User: Fold this.
Amino acid sequence: MKLFTNKKKLQREIKNINNISFVPTMGALHRGHESIIKKSVRTSRKTIVSIFVNPKQFENKKDFNNYPKNNKDTNLLKKLKVSYLYKPSYSDIFKFKTKNKIFLDQFSKKLCGKYRRGHFKGVVDVVNRLLEIIMPKKILLGQKDFQQLVLIKKHIIKNKINTKVISCKTIRDKDFVAYSSRLKRLNNHQRFNLVMIINYLRAYKRNLLLKKITHNPNKIKKRLLILGAKKVDYVEILNLKTLKKPKKNKFNLFFAFYIGNVRFIDNF
Ligand code: PAF
Assistant:
């Protein structure tokens, strides 16, 4: 695996490779990333992974500074047979003028968009810059961050960027908890509460599907607080295609809540 911290050198290296797949990350790699990267390595000639903790997508400095880091990332990527690791500095990413204009679809105003001001603009900005630098044939993104995935896809389509978005399924542990970098910050008690909440939400979805109950956001929010969430941003049901409230019985339950200071999002 070759490591690059400078975009010019990276571009020189990859300019003649036309089947390159790209997995953007912020490091602190876990089983979810591992699964996406394995898929990429399996299905393309070369895989490039980026590790860059993007300050523009954090609403506050404390959250940015607390974002988990892991010095085992590089070894894991070597083991997974990644061809290139791009670990840029802030200026390598942000000190150039982009070709494309950031396109933020209306969907950015829903779900996390209501609670994290500027977050999706920051995400689309950095991913656009990475795409302009790398020009990959494919970008692989996880479904856990479904809203991010949709917004990146809409930006790519609007700007006619020649990169295909590959959506990758969420990887869960034995308790059905989706792997996430922030989980490393939970203590045992908080982890126990998280598992209780996820179990509760699964049962809630089952009952919605069986039409034993109707969706009641306020009631379910209160329930999650009793089960140990410190704050609940939202619990909503959306159809994955229309991105609206479901007309039929086809939907995912989307949620975001805090356990201690750790924000957890998922959908199933
Ligand atoms: O999902 C993430 O880790 C980040 O939002 C991404 C896509 C790497 C952009 O910084």
